[in-house]
Design goal:
Elements lengths: L10 E2 L3 E2 L7 E2 L2 E2 L1 H14 L10 E2 L6 H9 L7 E3 L10 E2 L5 E3 L1 H6 L8 E3 L4 E8 L2 E8 L2 H22 L3 H15 L3
Parallel strand pairs: 5-7
Antiparallel strand pairs: 1-2, 3-4, 6-8, 9-10, 10-11
C-alpha cells in the first residue's frame, strides 16, 4: 500500500505512525477512523490487555492512512472491528484479510460459544445456560455435563443462525457458518 506524505508523524503505542494530512483529534472530536485504528493498536501494544499479548497488527496497518483507506471501503458505522470471525490462517494478526466489522452484540455473543455448561455444586447436576442478546437464559439441569453441553450447543446454533441472517458481509457470513458447523459437530 502507498504511504501518504503527512503534516506530522507520531509514534502511537510504540509502533504506529499517524501519517494523516489533517488533525485527527480536535475540539470537535476524534476522527472515527483514527479512533478505531488507535484502539486496535492500544489492544495489541499497550500491555494493558493480557489477552492481546500474542496479537499483532500487519505492517501496512501500522500506518494510519493505510488502515483508513481500508476502513473507508467497509460498512463500519456503529460496528466493532473484529479479527476472529473471518476464517483465516492467522487470526492473531489484524489485517485486511482477517478483519471485518460486526455489531457489538455479536462481538459479545461469540466468546459465549466457547462455554460448556455449568455444574450446580449443591445438587451435583449440570446446568445448561447461555447469554443471548444480553439476556442470560437457563435451559435446565442435567445429570451429566455431556447432556448440558448438547442442550447448550443446540441453543447456540439457533442463536447463531439469527445473527447469520442479519449479516450482509459475505466474509462474516462464511465465518459464522463455519462456527455453526463446528458447534453442530461437537459430540
Amino acid at each position: 500500500m502507498m504511504r501518504r506524505k503527512s503534516i506530522a508523524t507520531n509514534n502511537i503505542h510504540g509502533v504506529g505512525t499517524n501519517d494523516a494530512d489533517y488533525q485527527v483529534v480536535s475540539a470537535s472530536g476524534t476522527c472515527p477512523y483514527y479512533r478505531k485504528w488507535e484502539h486496535m493498536l492500544e489492544r495489541c501494544y499497550s500491555g494493558k490487555n493480557k489477552a492481546y499479548e500474542a496479537i499483532t497488527v500487519c505492517d501496512d496497518w501500522l500506518w494510519f492512512s493505510n488502515f483508513k483507506d481500508w476502513m473507508e471501503k467497509q460498512d463500519w458505522k456503529g460496528l466493532t472491528l473484529d479479527k476472529d470471525v473471518i476464517p483465516a490462517n492467522n487470526a492473531s494478526v489484524y489485517s485486511p484479510e482477517t478483519c471485518c466489522f460486526i455489531s457489538a452484540e455479536l462481538n459479545f455473543f461469540l466468546p459465549s460459544l466457547k462455554g460448556k455448561g455449568y455444574e450446580n455444586t449443591a445438587s451435583k447436576r449440570f446446568q445448561s445456560r447461555l447469554s443471548i442478546r444480553g439476556v442470560r437464559k437457563c435451559f435446565g439441569t442435567y445429570k451429566t455435563m455431556a447432556e448440558a453441553i448438547a442442550v447448550t450447543n443446540s441453543h447456540k446454533v439457533v442463536a447463531l443462525q439469527d445473527y447469520i441472517d442479519e449479516q450482509t458481509d459475505p466474509r462474516v457470513i462464511e465465518g459464522l457458518l463455519k462456527i455453526r458447523e463446528e458447534l453442530e459437530n461437537v459430540k
